[in-house]
Write a structure and sequence with these properties.
This protein has one domain (9-108): Cyclophilin (Beta Barrel), CATH 2.40.100. The N and C termini lie far apart (32 Å). The chain is mainly beta. It has 1 helix and 9 strands, in the order βαββββββββ. The relative contact order is 0.29. Strands 1-8-5-6-3-2-9 form a 7-stranded antiparallel beta sheet, covered by helices on one side. Strands 4-7 form a two-stranded antiparallel sheet.
């Protein structure tokens, strides 16, 4: 279980789906465990997949959009190639605190840095 106030930082990719996701922020979601590999949550709207590859092979720490279901996934274990999966970005640092069966309520928001 994550400690209250635990924070992760991620960098989003430059693509239509990532821009659509960023436009939804701030966003509060309940992440549910899926197959002991990732945490998933439904998004309130579908994201554009324009210009995205047909699928991707996510790595630990990746944030992705699964277009067929319209949900977001955050990977805490390695997973193979999946058609319909669009990588949105990558979390900096470890994500092992996401592992487990308990749902996790998260708030995702934009942080503006000097580089932005």
């Amino acid at each position: 279980m994550l400690a209250k106030g635990w924070q992760l930082t991620a960098d989003l990719e430059d693509g239509a789906a990532s821009r659509d996701f960023a436009a939804l922020l701030p966003l509060e979601l309940t992440l549910r465990d899926y197959h002991g590999t990732e945490k998933v949550a439904d998004l309130p709207v579908r994201l554009s997949t324009e210009g995205a590859p047909d699928g991707t092979d996510p790595a630990i720490g990746d944030i992705a959009y699964y277009a067929p279901w319209g949900n977001i996934a955050i990977y805490y274990r390695d997973f193979g190639y999946s058609s319909g999966l669009v990588r949105l970005g990558r979390i900096e640092g470890g994500v092992s605190g996401l592992a487990g069966k308990d749902p996790v309520v998260v708030r995702i928001e934009t942080i503006v840095t000097e580089a932005d």
